[in-house]
Write a structure and sequence with these properties.
Layout: H1 2-16, H2 19-79
Helix pairs in contact: 1-2
Length: about 80
Amino acid sequence: MQVRAIQEESSRLQVGYAGHKQEELRRQEQEVLDAWRRLLSMVESRRLKLANASDLYRFFNMVRDLLLWMDDIVRQMNTQEKPR
């Protein structure tokens, strides 16, 4: 994973630097990790929205099928011979 590679490289580089440069490396590593967490959060949010949309689509299809079935039953009832 690229994020893990960046963390490992940052840790390796921090050993060779001190002071301001080391802090800059830590700050940039933290920015990458924060962006990664935001991305994961957005992915999960999108996954939930897609799952909800899929459920809604399935529900609408069930409603359509039931309405068609009811129309067919009503049509059959109207065409049957009525008792005298």
